[in-house]
Design goal:
The complex is a heterodimer. Chain A is mainly α. Chain A has 2 domains: 1-151, no CATH class; 152-311, no CATH class. Chain A is 74% helix and 0% strand. Chain A has helices at residues 3-33, 44-51, 55-61, 67-75, 84-98, 104-122, 130-147, 155-183, 193-205, 209-215, 222-231, 239-251, 257-276, 279-285, 287-310. Chain A starts with a helix and ends with a helix. By secondary structure, chain B is of the alpha+beta class. Chain B has 2 domains: 12-334 and 423-461, no CATH class; 337-397, Dna Ligase, domain 1 (2-Layer Sandwich). A 5-stranded mixed sheet of chain B has the order 1-21-20-17-16. Chain B has a 5-stranded mixed sheet with strand order 11-3-2-18-19. In chain B, strands 5-4-9-10 form a 4-stranded parallel sheet, covered by helices on one side. In chain B, strand 2 (132-141) and strand 3 form a beta hairpin. Chain B starts with 12 loop residues before the first helix and ends with a strand. Chains A and B meet through helix 1, helix 5 and helix 6 of A and helix 2, helix 9, strand 5 and strand 7 of B.
């Protein structure tokens, strides 16, 4: 397989995953905006922008933070590299190049999404349309993922999924971090009702609310949720699950075993640690520090994948 | 379709019945279905006046039909022409016999930009310079076919030929049950066989590694590039995926470098090798020409093939056929005036309102004048151009192109058509059993180019 093909496949799933995350974040903001805004909490739309890594770009463009503008910026804005529009556009442009490396269904899924996106963009939308837009995005991404199930299980498949889990690991970690450091500025609120409400919104944004209920009994507590999103191997968005899948798709690669080995060596400590760690230890050590280290590690793995395979 | 005003040619009877059965509602639905299909698969193109949204070429539901005997003659004629064009290239880049025989003056060959001096004295595998040739044909009477132009560099449109058939079979399976239409879907396989049969001398693989070299997604034929590489099961590469090391060409893969034997290039000569052609070019593979000339790789079509489809060379193709093959041309040229010659220029200037004037280097229906359809001011403009740069132009009579029934707002109306069949020459010479029929969708229009609002049709060759 051409190095460029591998790179494009990797980025197609990253973009599609990112489109979903951004859309879900918008949904979080939307839900939070329906609750009364208690004093001491930051504006929910500002949190959403921070979580999406788009706060600086937004502030360059707008003076005040308003729902209408945040929605537009995160969903349609061409100047925001992570807007759902740009993610889909980039995924589609990459897919155009490597369409022959996956199934016609996968290409169709992406191209139809792109065509519909152009139609959506031409229409003026209203605030109440936001849940529809989120739902639409999630549906489209699911269509794409579904189409991958009939792919040959070759290196192209593994690069697609490496991209997906690298992106997801990064996104989940950032969401977790944002919960603690952006949503919640005052320690006295920890464990309060509003805190729990926000945790459940976080779960929803990761499409894990119901899954959490299945996995844990009793009250929703911060520790349980952290355990669920960091360590639980059954949760498809947990950091641990993402790492395991990164390792799996990495070691399934048949090309260049020596390159695979090098990347694996860098990753295996984190993998072992996350499998053995207890959530209490992590919380004691500091969730933020843990998550920050995790994000750094994922980014270095991403760099190595680019160095070894795409150059 | 019609023999005279009201008599339908026999082989169109089935289609006529089929049309009669279709309600306008069905036609509308099928048109929409075809459009959605083309948009979804991404068979779009961009024009010189770029707009934000990609365009699709209008597709007409009514197929154009050739009988077996009609086609047989075209097939022989096109293959004959393709062979002569390759013989011409082999000759002018080596002995130059046709010049010595005073058939073609040497100035019009060696001074052309499309002539490639670096090819002099080099012979590509099997002496095939241009393995894929698209010949544009027009019909002006029951058996009067003329060659409008030859395309020896990188003719495009074959993906439309294949996709038009695909959508027709999908939407109207009954049509294909009731008509014996020769299949065309083996074209990509034949193309791959042709490329593999042209492996360079130093190739060590029993199955040569072929790649398709594309300029990238911004090229208007990009869909075709990815379609063909997919159908052939070969890599579609951009020049940054290739590099030269030692005497060979490699592509960068996740397993490391992989040697390439045959490059089916869909980029222009100028962008092949910055060391050899255009030093300003940021695309291209430095050193590929050295590898080519030392037999490490084959480039199809060969650099410098473009001279064979130059509009000034076109005039001499019938002579080439006689000279190289010792045969009479089966397909005629359109009468052409070479404005470079003083007398012919005078004729053109005197009769310009009856003629079509074309730029020698123009394509895509741009830069041409259709005398009988043009305003006085544009005629005057062309007269000035002709007088200042006569070399840059040729002129032809306005041909009365044949009409083909075409659905216009649910009504069947006649529209002018041309045809581009695709000829492959490698170990053997063969013609696709069909081609790209382009149709001028505007009433009275003579221009079939997609950039000028032309459409396409499925093209049938009936089995014997």
């Amino acid at each position: 397989m051409l190095s460029r093909t591998a790179e494009y496949l990797y980025w197609i799933s990253r973009y599609m995953e990112r489109a979903e995350t951004t859309a879900r974040l918008l949904d979080v903001g939307y839900r939070m905006s329906l609750f009364p805004n208690p004093s001491g909490y930051n504006n929910e739309w500002e949190s959403v922008l921070s979580a999406a890594g788009a706060i600086d770009g937004y502030k360059n463009k707008y003076n005040t933070i308003e729902q209408r503008n945040v929605e537009d910026y995160l969903f349609f804005d061409e100047s925001n590299p992570s807007s759902v529009y740009n993610c889909i556009l980039n995924a589609r442009n990459n897919a155009l190049v490597v369409r022959t490396s996956f199934t016609p269904e996968s290409w169709l899924a992406i191209n139809k999404t792109y065509q519909e996106m152009l139609n959506l963009k031409e229409k003026k939308f209203t605030q109440s349309d936001l849940p529809d837009l989120t739902e639409w995005t999630i549906e489209q991404v699911n269509l794409f993922r579904g189409s991958l199930s009939s792919l040959l299980r070759n290196d192209g498949y593994n690069f697609l999924f490496l991209g997906l889990f690298i992106e997801r690991a990064d996104n989940s970690a950032r969401l977790l971090d944002v919960k603690y450091f952006v949503l919640l500025p005052k320690p006295q609120y920890v464990g309060g009702n509003i805190d729990n409400m926000q945790w459940s919104i976080l779960l929803r944004s990761l499409s894990s609310f119901r899954a959490f209920r299945w996995a844990y009994e009793g009250n929703i507590t911060a520790t349980k949720i952290a355990d669920f999103l960091v360590l639980n191997n059954n949760c498809p968005r947990s950091l641990s699950f993402c790492i395991q899948n990164i390792v799996k798709h990495l070691t399934n690669l048949t090309c260049s075993p020596s390159k695979v080995e090098r990347i694996y060596n860098n990753l295996k400590d984190l993998n072992t640690k996350i499998q053995e760690e207890k959530i209490e230890t992590i919380v004691e050590y500091g969730l933020h520090q843990f998550v920050t280290q995790f994000i750094r590690k994922i980014s270095s793995v991403d760099n190595e994948i680019h160095q070894e395979f795409f150059n | 379709m019609y023999q005279s005003e009201s008599v339908i040619r026999n082989h169109y009877n089935n289609i006529n019945d089929w049309l009669d059965q279709m309600t306008s509602k069905v036609i509308l639905e099928k048109n929409a279905e075809a459009e959605t299909h083309f948009r979804n698969i991404g068979i779009t193109f961009s024009t010189n006046n770029e707009t934000a949204r990609e365009r699709i070429i209008p597709f007409d539901l009514i197929p154009r039909i050739f009988t077996y005997t009609e086609w047989l003659r075209l097939e022989r004629g096109v293959i004959q022409r393709a062979k002569a064009l390759n013989a011409f290239l082999a000759d002018i880049y080596n002995q130059g016999e046709i010049i010595k025989a005073n058939i073609i003056p040497k100035e019009i060959i060696y001074k052309k930009k499309s002539f490639e001096p670096s090819m002099f004295g080099f012979s590509p595998p099997r002496d095939i310079y241009s393995p894929i040739i698209g010949i544009d044909l027009v019909r002006t009477g029951p058996n009067d076919y003329f060659v409008l132009e030859d395309n020896c560099r990188t003719p495009s449109g074959v993906s439309y030929m294949l996709e038009n058939r695909e959508i027709m079979m999908r939407m109207f399976p009954d049509l294909f049950h009731n008509n014996r239409v020769t299949p065309i879907d083996d074209y990509p396989t034949r193309l791959l066989q042709t490329l593999m049969s042209l492996a360079p001398i130093k190739c060590e693989n029993s199955e040569p590694v072929c790649v398709l070299l594309t300029p990238g997604p911004l090229n208007s034929a990009y869909y075709e590039h990815s379609f063909l590489s997919d159908q052939m099961g070969i890599e579609m590469v951009e020049s940054t995926d290739l590099f030269v090391e030692g005497k060979y060409l490699y592509m960068k893969t996740v397993d490391g470098p992989k040697r390439v034997d045959v490059v089916y290039r869909r980029i222009d000569d100028d962008f092949l090798d910055p060391l050899c052609f255009n030093p300003q070019s940021v695309i291209g593979v430095p050193g590929i020409m050295d590898v080519y000339r030392t037999g490490g790789v084959n480039i199809c079509s060969a650099p410098g093939s473009g001279i064979a489809d130059d509009k000034a060379i076109y005039i001499y193709v019938p002579e080439m056929i006689k000279f190289y093959l010792g045969e009479q041309p089966i397909l005629d040229n359109v009468e052409t005036w070479n404005c470079e010659k003083e007398q012919e220029l005078k004729y053109v200037l005197d009769n310009i309102n009856k003629l079509v004037v074309k730029e020698v280097d123009g394509s895509g229906g741009y830069g041409m004048l259709i005398g009988p359809k043009s305003s006085k001011s544009s005629i005057d403009e062309f007269k000035t151009k002709l007088s200042t740069n006569p070399k840059g132009y040729i002129a032809q009579p306005l041909l009365d192109l044949s009409f083909s029934p075409t659905l216009i707002k649910n009504q069947v109306e006649g529209r002018r058509v041309d045809l581009r069949p695709f000829c492959l020459i490698g170990e053997q010479a063969q013609l696709s059993s069909g081609g790209l029929t382009r149709v001028a969708m505007n009433e009275g229009s003579f221009v079939v180019n997609s950039s000028q609002g032309g459409g396409v049709k499925d093209t049938w060759v009936l089995a014997e």
